Amino acid sequence: MTRIKMTVITEAEAKGQSVLAPPYAGPVITARGDLNYECGQCGTELLAKVAYKQVVNIVIKCGQCGAHNIVPPTHLPT
Questions:
Q1: In the chain, where does DSSP find H-type helix?
Q2: Domain-by-domain residue ranges, the chain?
Q3: Distance CA 22, CA 73 (A)
Q4: What is the rounded CA–CA span in Å between residue 36 and residue 14?
Q5: Do 25 and 61 contact (CB within 8 A), yes or no?
Q6: Which residue, 35, 47, 49, 44, is CA-closest to 64?
């Protein structure tokens, strides 16, 4: 399973976007893909076993540290 560190953005940058903000620390989405994403600030796993296409263009507020995270657009091989 590939672990990828997410990119932290400011709360202002997250305005107007879909934001998932769970009241707990742990994965917000668990699926059947091959990628795991962790908070770019504290390392908490936020997305488990997902495919890139499932999680692009969403913001996840970490339930552990409160950081706003996005999936980095350049982590996939070209």
A1: 11-14, 52-55
A2: 2-67
A3: 23
A4: 21
A5: no
A6: 44
Whether the Cβ atoms of residue 73 and residue 32 lie closer than 8 Å to each other: no
How far apart, in Å, are the Cα atoms of 11 and each of 2, 33, 69, 70, 74? 27, 28, 10, 12, 22
CB-based contact 3:36 (threshold 8 Å):
yes
Q: What is the full per-residue pLDDT of the chain (78 aa) written as tens digits?
A: 789 999 999 999 999 898 999 999 999 999 999 999 999 999 999 999 999 888 888 999 999 999 999 998 766 554
d(CA 38, CA 58): 14
**Cα 9 to the center of its chain, rounded Å:** 11
Location of structure tokens 């940058």:
13
Cα–Cα nearest to 35, from 48, 20, 16, 18: 48
